[in-house]
Recover the amino acids of this structure.
């Protein structure tokens, strides 16, 4: 492609981990006079493009927010359609994941998912487990508060059993109890569809993430949109509490 933003990306300064809140499927479909599920179906194409683009660039970790704990409160028909789509997509995309050397993992309350989703998810995770390229993290039935509470409970159990004292709890120790324990914190968080909120996503992990919002609805998100977000990220100064002069030197 001519004039791709890809050429402007500094390969030595890539975000190690990109997390995306894929939002706007329903509105995309409605604008076209279609049912919401039509938007979800078209969102799969955007997922494929984004995963491929990130893997090609050499991004280490890509986390996609696919279904939140709160999304269980949607109409039953939409939930069922989303779960079926997940079953089909997990099956269809395995070859693509293998070709791109991508290792799939999942976070969230996986046990709460329908049996067929769990089975196909497990199969895809197993099959791709030895791949050494990008790690693709699917957040399914995920809520950050749930994840944090779960971590808290496991720490509480250790205290109860005398294995740990309150004084010994550190940030590192807490991070170890999260489902993302093997995954570095996201450096770039993208949300599509012009909504400016985090919707219970990775609350602990995004403490110092750069936030990027775009009006593009998820089904319209392309490789170029990802490149644009990365270029924007690379032009920011990440100070981590210090002053500019300290960071530059
Ligand atoms: C994001 O699109 C996909 C999921 C939350 C599963 P939405 O379904 O939230 O689409 P909008 O926000 O209603 O347009
Ligand atoms: C967040 O989108 C969850 C996912 C993208 C899976 P929502 O559309 O559910 O978020 P809210 O309800 O607008 O905050
Ligand atoms: Mg939404």
């Amino acid at each position: 492609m001519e004039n791709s933003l890809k050429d402007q990306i500094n390969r030595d300064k890539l975000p190690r981990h990109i997390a995306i809140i894929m939002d706007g499927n329903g509105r995309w479909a409605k604008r076209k006079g279609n049912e919401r599920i039509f938007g979800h179906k078209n969102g799969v194409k955007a997922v494929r493009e984004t995963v491929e683009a990130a893997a090609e660039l050499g991004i280490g970790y890509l986390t996609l927010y696919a279904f939140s704990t709160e999304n269980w409160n949607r109409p039953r028909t939409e939930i069922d359609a989303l779960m079926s789509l997940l079953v089909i997509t997990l099956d269809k995309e395995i070859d693509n994941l293998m070709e791109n050397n991508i290792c799939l993992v999942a976070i969230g309350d996986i046990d709460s998912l329908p049996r067929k989703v769990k089975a196909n998810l497990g199969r895809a995770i197993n099959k791709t487990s030895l791949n050494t390229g990008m790690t693709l993290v699917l957040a399914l039935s995920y809520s950050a508060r749930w994840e944090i509470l779960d971590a808290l409970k496991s720490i509480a159990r250790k205290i109860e059993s005398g294995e740990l004292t309150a004084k010994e709890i550190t940030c590192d120790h807490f991070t170890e109890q999260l489902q993302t324990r093997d995954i570095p914190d996201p450096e770039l968080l993208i949300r599509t569809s012009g909504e400016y909120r985090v919707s219970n996503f990775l609350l602990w992990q995004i403490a110092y993430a750069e936030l990027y919002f775009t009006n593009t609805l998820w089904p319209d998100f392309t490789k170029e949109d990802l490149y644009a977000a990365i270029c924007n990220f690379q032009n920011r100064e990440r100070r981590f509490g210090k002053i500019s002069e300290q960071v530059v030197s």
